[in-house]
Amino acid sequence: MWVGLFIGFIIGAAAEAWGIANPETLIRLAKWEDRLFVACITLGLAISTPVLYGLYAAGVGFHFSPKPLYVIGVGIGGLLFGAGLAISGYFPGSIWMALGEGRRDAVYAVFGAILGAATWTVLYQTPAGQWLVNTLNFGSLVLGGKHVDTFIIQPFSGLTPIDLFGISIVYAIAMFLVAYYTPRYKGGARSCLRENIERRSTPIEIQKHMDTARYLTDGGLPYNDKSIAKKMNEYYATESNVTRWFMVSVAGIVGLTVVLEMFLHQIFGESTTDSWIAGQLFLPNFKYSQIVFKGIGWEPFSDIGTLMGAFFSAVFLTRRFTSFRNIIPPSWAMRFGNNEAIRFLGSFGGAYLMLFGARMADGCASGHILSGDLQMAISGLEFTAAVFAAMLITAHFVYRKR
């Protein structure tokens, strides 16, 4: 169980260095202005999925965890999650990273997340909750097979584990093409991966990199010109004549760490911890709480590790630790001003919607989008599509100019 601290530390430190702890990063994703998350996730899948299924075809055992495909509940949950993400700028896991980075609005997001998880705990045992999880429930399906036991993905009739590996190769190629050809910035011409390979950037991309460095370090700790923070925040991000493999390599680190988790017979998830906390504090006798208590693994440990890893990175590597000062995300400030109470309300309310949707869908950005899509889970692909649709629509209306 304690290995979860180490695993969470790696993911928290890597993701904080990338910038995921800053809510502006995900708000800009929702506004479709900065698509680094898309490149990192798809590149991580391209690297890790063939590794997972290649080792499985060779006889290595993994703790598979594709979520069940109950179409209506997963779809509605994904829509709620995407709307909450666009408003708050947080994933369940990035809330813990933001606490490690010293972000004040993340404190309010924690309470919103726990309340959202508690709401699903109450709804789950009602007829409406049972209808959501049982209607059109096709079980835990992946591309080419079905999850029939903790350690077994059973290929469909006529297929073998080798065939699943072949499907994963095709899947990886598709993910790589998305990562390679999707421009990072709105108005830009290249993805980070393509910039690294071609070693050139347009003036718009250089300006966007500099703007990114500014908001990532806003309110952070000072650093000198010879520090690693200088290189991580400015040099690798803004120079057009050097490679920026550091930013792209985060994708491989996170993806392969999830494969390692599955090899260690655990699953990667973040939002389960909120249901566990809600159950322990308020709803211990509810049916959903009992399910969580029975099935939870090292998720609370990995969340603590995520916080610790982000804190380590923010203090000793990137120097982005904000000491819980009032730092308002620029996109939020442009739309709603610098009123702290309004930002806290958005952080709380968005996190509430996000966690309510995550628990309804039985997974979040970690359980569905990262580890689910890594396993080629059909429920994960549906959830991802619903999240992006709701995220883009919500951001269009929430952040449009007055």
Automatic annotation (TrEMBL):
Intracellular or extracellular location(s): Cell inner membrane
Domain of life: Archaea
Main location: membrane
Keyword Transmembrane: yes
Annotated membrane topology: Multi-pass membrane protein
The protein, known as: Transporter
Pfam families the record matches: Sulf_transp
InterPro entries: Sulf_transp_TsuA/YedE
Keyword Translocase: no
Gene Ontology cellular-component annotations: plasma membrane
Membrane-crossing residue ranges in chain numbering: 35-57, 69-91, 106-124, 136-156, 162-181, 245-268, 304-321, 341-358, 378-399
Residues spanning the signal sequence: none
Alphabetic keyword roster: Cell inner membrane, Cell membrane, Membrane, Transmembrane, Transmembrane helix, Transport
